[in-house]
């Protein structure tokens, strides 16, 4: 592993971000979602959170910044071995940092074990990655999570702690909502570490958390994924109502032409509950009924 922090660590083992910034020839700018991880212990742990047996032969990093995590991912993928076992692709939007990464890891780029894509992770073509480990730009947390989750790959991602708590919440908990159902539809999710603000430079306003997403095969069928997600979104706009009233009141969001027909077809047991008590399989059952009886159209 390249030691890019030589002589720049403080008493806590943290990197000196100014030294990294000088080397990148640009400063981290929080307005560009640039909160760099500077705690080496956290950086070392991130790749180890991949699920047991995960294929690390092609790791994706979203937002490479000054490369502190990229370094670890190259090692985790076995890309530094004399006979490289794997490779890493980094997507970085900011041109100076993308150029810095290419220069800093010139050997890996040259040998084909590292590709740096300069572009917006929300719009560039994603590579055929086997797993993703990233300290995400928080401004696009939701959009990038829902770009990655349908790819059915193991993900280790940092989020604002409050967002992470909502992703992993279970039915009945106060944080449980649309984000929880949509996430858990794709993956088993858990918070594996909380990261204090001091681990970043510049420090973000709030605490962060690392979420591990292990792809799952749901024990229910969803024929129309777009409708399922829209239906979940619709019902949670009326989370204090019963499911019966939520289905009726949100037809303009879910796109149901005949919400009453859905209510007539559904079990009283589901209709009398509140959306926040339904697990993803119950939402799937209701969405199937809604598809069949409610004449959904694009909302
Ligand atoms: C939170 S920093 C993480 C940097 C580095 N990986 C680390 O852990 O220190 C997020 C990085 O994502 C980049 N970024 C922000 N928005 C992006 C986008 N839409 N697509 C790709 N990269 C983005 C920022 O320039 C920044 O380098």
Ions and ligands: S-adenosylmethionine
Point out poorly predicted stretches: 1-14
Number of strands: 9
Tally of separate domains: 2
Distance between the termini: 51 Å
Question: Per CATH, what is the topology of the largest domain?
Answer: Rossmann fold
Order of helices and strands: HEHEHEHHEEHEHHEEEHHHHHH
- Bulk shape: elongated
> What is the structural class?
alpha/beta
CATH homologous superfamily designation of the largest domain: Vaccinia Virus protein VP39
Overall pLDDT: 91
CATH class of the largest domain: Alpha Beta
Q: Give the count of helical stretches.
A: 14
**Rg (CA only):** 22 Å
Helix content: 25-40%
Strand order of the largest sheet: 4-3-2-5-6-9-7
CATH architecture group name of the largest domain = 3-Layer(aba) Sandwich
Can you summarize the main beta sheet?
7 strands, mixed
């Amino acid at each position: 592993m390249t030691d890019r922090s030589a002589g720049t660590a403080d008493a806590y083992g943290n990197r000196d971000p100014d030294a990294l910034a000088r080397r990148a020839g640009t400063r981290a700018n929080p307005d560009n979602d640039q909160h760099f991880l500077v705690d080496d212990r956290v950086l070392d742990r991130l790749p180890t959170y991949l699920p047991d047996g995960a294929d690390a032969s092609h790791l994706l990093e979203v937002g490479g910044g000054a490369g502190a995590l990229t370094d670890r991912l190259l090692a985790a993928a076995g890309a530094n071995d004399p006979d490289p076992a794997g490779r890493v692709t980094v997507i970085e939007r900011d041109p100076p940092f993308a150029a810095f990464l290419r220069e800093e890891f010139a050997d890996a780029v040259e040998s084909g074990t590292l590709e740096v894509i300069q572009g917006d992770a929300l719009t560039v073509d994603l590579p055929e990655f086997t797993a993703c480990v990233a300290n995400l730009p928080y401004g696009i947390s939701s959009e990038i999570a829902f770009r990655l989750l349908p790819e059915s790959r193991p993900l280790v991602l940092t989020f604002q702690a409050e967002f992470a708590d909502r992703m992993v919440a279970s039915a009945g908990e106060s944080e449980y909502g649309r984000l929880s159902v949509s996430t858990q539809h794709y993956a088993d999710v858990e918070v594996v570490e909380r990261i204090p603000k001091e681990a970043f430079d510049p420090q973000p306003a709030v605490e962060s958390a690392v979420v591990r997403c292990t792809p799952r095969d749901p024990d229910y069928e969803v024929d129309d994924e777009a409708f399922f997600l829209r239906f979940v979104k619709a019902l949670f706009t009326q989370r204090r109502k019963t499911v019966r009233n939520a289905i009726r009141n949100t037809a303009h969001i879910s796109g149901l032409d005949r919400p009453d027909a859905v209510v007539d077809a559904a079990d009283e047991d589901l209709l009398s509950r509140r959306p926040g008590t339904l697990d993803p399989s119950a939402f799937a059952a209701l969405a199937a009924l809604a598809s069949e009886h409610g004449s959904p159209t694009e909302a």
